[in-house]
Amino acid sequence: MKANIGDRLFNVLNIALLGLIALVTFFPIYYVFVVSFTDSSEFVRKSFILFPEKWSLESYKYLLSTKAFSRSIGVSAYLAIVGTTLSLIVTAALSYTLSRKRLRGRRVILLGILLTILFSPGIIPSYLVVRQFGLINSLWALIFPALASGWNVILMKGFFDSVPAELEESASIDGCNDLTIWLRIILPLSLPSLAAFGLFYAVEYWNQFFAAMIYLNDPTKWPIQVMLQNMLLNADNSELRAEMSTMSPPSETLKMAAVIIATVPILTVYPFLQKHFAKGAMVGSIKG
User: Fold this and answer.
1) Averaged over 143-156, what is the pLDDT?
2) CB 284 within 8 A of CB 193
3) CA-based angle 129:157:113, to the nearest 5?
4) What residues form DSSP beta bridges with 38?
């Protein structure tokens, strides 16, 4: 059936509107990227840059040569690697345990996890708990309170519920205990869900900002997001500014380069997990 003039006009306007929205959304990212690679002399000479005459890496080289910025990248990488690993272990172990129907008090524990999803304790109780355990000004204050997400635990439990009970029964007959079954049978089968939830946790730990602002008083322990905020809003008083010489690149190009550096690592991880992401994110949510 041929489309009438009204349908064609609607399609044209729809494509034009969506294209405009995409352009408006993409342009800030493009501008940040371009300015970060712009040569200092060209940036000072021009008030607005759409495409640099000469591409330069001086802002990136300067930032990565400063101890404060390089250290903040290392802190964020440490949080992402260690935090994600521990969170996956805790989430998978708790989810598998709760999926066992023979566990006593299982429904009470599930209700407690559900309450943590519905009701947040707030900033002050969380701070008091962290202080009581002596974690103030420690990187563990950013890891321990975020070890397991109640929502992720419930989703992964749904996956473990869908694993055939016959697999565990046959393994038990062969002499495997619960820990061996979990390590050698259940975890290899749950790689798609682990990849999906691992990406969620990695993004969360890499983007640690608010908790770091509350619990970390030592600037040497700041993750990249706190360092970036300090550069963008308070560059004159930042620890990074103390290392900068009068011959450093313009502050705007340094800020743009810092934004790119803080964004790229997580973007590079996603393609490696993408094949598992769509399957793992919904695993256990539908049972048939």
Assistant:
1) 87
2) yes
3) 30
4) 55
Residue type, 65: S
* Integer Cα distance of 41 and 54 in angstroms: 10
The tokens of 145 are what?
């309170």
Three-class DSSP category at 38 = strand
Give the number of other Cβ atoms within 10 Å of residue 277's Cβ.
18
Distance CA 172, CA 168 (A): 6
Please name the residue ranges forming H helices in the chain. Answer: 5-36, 40-45, 58-65, 67-99, 106-118, 123-132, 150-161, 165-173, 178-181, 187-189, 191-206, 210-215, 224-234, 239-243, 251-282
Dig out the tokens for 197 from the structure. Answer: 């939830």
Residue 48 pLDDT grade (very low, low, confident, very high; cuts 50, 70, 90): confident
Q: Which two tokens stand for residue 148?
A: 């397991």
Fold held by 60-282: MetI-like fold (1.10.3720)
For the chain, the domains span 5-36, 60-282
| CA–CA dist 35, 47 (Å, integer) | 11
Dihedral of CA 229/232/236/242: which sign? positive
pLDDT tens string 200-227: 899 899 988 888 999 998 888 999 998 8
Q: Are 277 and 148 in contact (CB under 8 A)?
A: no
Q: Select from 46, 60, 73, 50 the least CA-distant residue to 256.
A: 60
Gap between the terminal Cα atoms of the chain: 38
Q: Provide φ and ψ at 55, rounded to 5°.
A: -80, 135
- The pTM of this model reads 0.80
pLDDT tens, position by position, 223-264: 999 888 887 776 544 555 555 555 567 778 888 888 888 888
Whose tokens are 């999906």? That residue is 196
- Measured CA to CA in angstroms, residue 247 lies from 41, 62, 129, 223, 243 at distances of 12, 10, 46, 26, 11
**And the tokens for 269?**
């991880």
